[in-house]
Amino acid sequence: MMELVATSIGDPGDCLMMPMPCYGGVFWDVGGRAEIEVVPVHLTSKMEEGDTRPFQLTAKKIEDTYNKARAEGKKIVGILLINPHNPLGDIYSAELIMDILNFCHKHSLHVIMDEIYMMSIFDTEAKYTSVLSLPNIPDPQRVHMVWGFAKDFCMSGMRCGVLYSVNEAVNKAVDALVYFNMIPGPIQHILTEIVLDKEWLDKVFIPTKYSRMREARSYMCDKLSALGIPVRKSPSGLYIWADFRKYIQPLTPENELVLFEKFMDAGVYLTPGIEAFNCGEPGYFRMVFTVYRDHLEVGMERIAAVLKDCAENGLTKPQGANAEASANVKEESLEDLLGLLQGRISSSGWLEETRTQNWATQNPVALEQFKQAMKSQEGSGDK
Ligand SMILES: Cc1ncc(COP(=O)(O)O)c(C=O)c1O
Question: Where are the transmembrane segments (predicted)?
Fold first, then answer.
């Protein structure tokens, strides 16, 4: 959906501003076929005048980026915002959103608001403002809200995006292009059934999801706190933005990847800030906590073991079974890192352990039921 909107509002070579660190997929979403350049609004751990916390987005930082890019001859057509944010977990106040909308209106810029985590706000005290809820959007024609099922409905991979825009030209263009991105009918049917069941969503799904998120997050935060890892206090997201700088000595982008490799070698995947989120400084990782509790426990034990090793022996390259493969990823991209992860999954014992024969031996009752079911299907001539 981001690609379709980007294609509709810009031409190849045009630019969209975006606060960094950010979800890295965006470079491909808008840079791939639409060929739109992403201009970073750099947020850093150092607080600037007027900031109340590190990595804080302000309208002033957007304005400074805009002026600098224009002075360099770039054509900025808009800004892409993620609210709630990935990877920081922040939510933007109504005042900040209005400041940005006013700035964009002044310069005739589009605002793509990615609200894909809007129902992943586990902090009940937090006040969330969807851009669509604002009563006086200064330039509604240039505000486009996108959302998707992947995060809020725990359905990564469903790949169903939603656009809300009042701009007829944009809607017409997206309508024409969406032919190539159609959501399969059966998937649409399943998703429709889910959103229509409001009672179940309100009373069961969402409260259960939030309470599980809070529990998992608090478990991870406690473990990280015991390891001396500061985390960003944020009300939303399926993840934590964690500061591992203390364990990366000397603190360099290369060493951030060495720590990443060490985690991988120990069998735990933490997303490195520079490589995956275009963070402007080394030391930060995003840690997803929305996994089964036993996975979380094993993961945290592995992280603790890696950090203990770093504290005792310094940050040295991994020596484990996958050390050679890990060593080769240093110069390569996130795609290579993900390929490495997939390679490890497929070469791990999991596939071997889950072979049909093993399953059959371990589940004799289910096997018998399966055989009976197959027999009765054969009898009915149903293949
Ligand atoms: C901010 C943001 N937008 C969009 C997406 C893409 O979602 P989907 O899996 O539906 O393509 C992601 C996925 O990580 C994301 O974090």
Answer: none
> So what's the pLDDT on residue 379?
63
Domains of the chain: 2-196 (3.40.640.10), 202-350 (3.90.1150.10)
- Please work out whether the CB of residue 150 comes within 6 Å of at least one atom of ligand 1: yes
Cα of 353 to ligand 1 centre, how many Å?
A: 32
Is pLDDT above 80 for 342?
Answer: no
What is the average per-residue pLDDT within 363-372? 84
Q: Whose CA is nearest to atom 7 of ligand 1?
A: 150
Give the ranges where the chain is alpha helix by DSSP (H).
2-9, 25-31, 59-71, 94-106, 149-152, 168-177, 185-196, 198-200, 206-226, 253-265, 273-277, 293-313, 323-327, 334-347, 349-353, 356-362, 364-379
The strands making up 271-272's β-sheet, listed across from edge to edge, are 239-243, 284-288, 271-272
Give the closest residue to 57 by CA, choosing from 29, 80, 34, 31: 80
